Amino acid sequence: MQAWLNRIDPITKGIWLFGTGLAVMISMKLNWQLGWFLSLLIIGVTGAGWSGARWRAVLILLLGFALPLFLFQCLVLPGTKIRLTILGLNLTEEACRTSLTLTLRALTLFLSSLLYATTTEPRDVVTALSHHLRLPNRFAFAVAIALRFVPLLAEEARNIREAQRMRQLTAPQGIGERMRLAGQYVAAVTSSAMRRVQNVATAMEVKQFGATAARTSWRTLRFTALGISFATAAVGAMTATILLG
User: Fold this and answer.
1) pTM of the model
2) For residues 96 and 71, what is the distance between their CA atoms, to the nearest angstrom?
């Protein structure tokens, strides 16, 4: 059985995504940013249907991004109340608080986009954009392809990384060897991405995409009470954040 976030249509889920992004971009209060991030974690844990391995990978990615960003902003943002001095650099209370606020904002934007991309069928996105929102087919298919390629490239990158580890009998020694392996990894991922793009472009050309003025679709979207309630709650929380935060 699908997790509840997978059962929500792209339009009402998109309202949630837009409301989350707008709320965290407008507010500069730490408690609001923390509240949005924690609510996003609850939504993800209960509704995304991710495995434990995927959650570990996502959390490692979030921490790897958040810690350097937080420390860098702590060092460069202004402040007056010095709390700690490291190697002659002063960490102030105001800078640390502002840095934590901005870091939580970035994490919320990243995680909400990831949840939307991994819990939404690209075919449903095409139906929502072209048949319900009346947007051009080229725009709808571009968005759907982008959503489809995010998990595909992530899986491809993981496979390439595992293959490189299996071929490497010993751990890389020195910065030079590590840089060489990193270059090979980037080249392999880029080559795989270009190959997939070429395959998609060829398939669309064979099917004469864009040759006809009107396109039909057998897929229909169901606007459930769950989705409408989810979007309404997101709009309400966004409004409260804008007015109070």
Assistant:
1) 0.71
2) 8
Going by the DSSP 8-state scheme, the letter that residue 82 receives in this structure is E
SS3 content of the chain, % helix, strand, coil (to 5): 75, 5, 20
Per-residue pLDDT 10s for the chain (245 aa) are 678 998 898 889 999 999 999 999 999 899 999 999 999 999 999 999 888 888 888 888 888 889 988 888 888 877 776 666 655 566 777 888 889 999 999 999 999 998 998 888 877 777 777 777 776 766 667 766 766 676 677 777 777 777 777 776 556 666 776 777 777 777 777 777 777 767 766 776 666 655 555 555 666 777 889 989 999 999 999 999 988 86
Contact 12, 223 (CB under 8 A): yes
Cα 111 to Cα 66, 74, 105, 167: the distances in Å are 12, 22, 10, 33
Listed in sequence order, the DSSP H helices in 85-222 are 93-118, 122-127, 137-167, 174-206
CA pair distance 105, 175, nearest whole angstrom:
33
Look up residue 135 and give its two tokens.
């947007």
The helix (run of H) or strand (run of E) holding residue 54 is helix 52-76
Residue type for 58, please?
V
